[in-house]
Amino acid sequence: MTAQGTCDPRFSQVAEEFERNLADRGEVGASVCVILDGEVVVDLWGGQAAPGEPWRRETLGHVWSCTKGATALCAHLLAARGELDLDAPVTRYWPEYGARGKSGTLVRHLLAHQAGLPALREPLPPGAFFDWKLMVERLAAEEPFWEPGTRHGYHGLTFGFLVGEVIRRISGRSLGTFFREEVAEPLGLEFWLGLPESEEGRVAPTIPADPPAEPPSFYLRAFSDPGSAQALLLANTGGYMAESDTREAHVAEYGAIGAITNARGLAGMYRPLAEGRLLPVEQRTIMSTTASAGTDAVLLVPTRFALGVMRSVDNRYLPAADSEGAMMSTTAFGHSGMGGSAGFCDPPARLAFGYTMNKQGAGLGINPRGQALVDATYRSLGYDQLGGGIWYRS
What we know:
The chain is an alpha+beta fold. The protein is 32% helix and 15% strand. The protein contains 13 helices and 14 strands. It has helices at 12-24, 67-80, 107-111, 132-141, 159-171, 175-187, 217-224, 229-235, 240-243, 247-251, 263-274, 281-288, 368-380; strands spanning 4-7, 29-36, 39-50, 53-54, 60-62, 203-204, 260-261, 292-295, 302-305, 333-336, 342-346, 351-357, 384-385, 391-392. The strands form 4 sheets. Strands 1, 2, 3, 4, 10, 11 and 12 form a 7-stranded antiparallel beta sheet that branches. Strands 6-5-7 form a 3-stranded mixed beta sheet. Strands 8-9 form a two-stranded antiparallel sheet. The longest helix has 14 residues, at 67-80.
């Protein structure tokens, strides 16, 4: 179970928690990377990628909703160039989207989970998530679950098609191509929205979370109300949730939960933002400023979103099943993924962080294993914690 890689002595607590995850907390295989002021200070991996197969430096994984940070970054790149107005109606770029009460939807509503389209009502055919044209046509024709802009609710699976189609309409490139050409290749990242077949053998299969003793409120609503947005989000996917580890899923340019990378790739994507590069300061400020907060209409717990990324949220006061959050500092922004993977940056600290794993946790935020690594990172930087929750520099 011993971890491999490198760790600056200043961050020995991160290595200790990583080892503890593998030994005592049910971690199967994982990677963690911390970049401080442009220097990689932690680059660790360990455990098993698959039965009998060690997690190696080159191992990749499905990072689920960490993908949203990549998609959001593409949108902000276009906004910084003056090609995308975040306050414009979506119909300026995607005219068909205005059907059935959506003409007032702004681009910022898509990014802030305020668009009212967290799911589709009519059953999707098998393989629908692998058919971009079908999905954007269905979303354009759908009636929103609430008036756009009046509340926020996590668009867990539709976010990538909604934001990605705007990116495609403006750039003339698919989302995966845009990300590869504008972000991954210039930064030298092993991070794909649409995995080349040559890299398929490096992917560690996802291990679903063990059933929780008490499910979060989101799952209780989904299981008890088949017509709810929660139930439709989980069940009306054209079979995607059962096929997410297939080659067909990995090659799909799916901007909500489809990215394949590792901790080095996640931290590497946020590194230039932590260093004040890639986006001008005005756009980085827009990207990181909270745009929606409060009780989430879909997840049914408090969440905080900027335009396409998550902000810190401490839900420990809620019942145990709903208490998982994302306890970074108040200046950090990024995204977690289903089961607990996480990538974020903290510009004042010049910090970029990435954590990926194959064994998922059961909660809705950063899993306890990942949070232990985040906490150790901030402790190593001399930060203090508000009652065991959000981190701050004293």
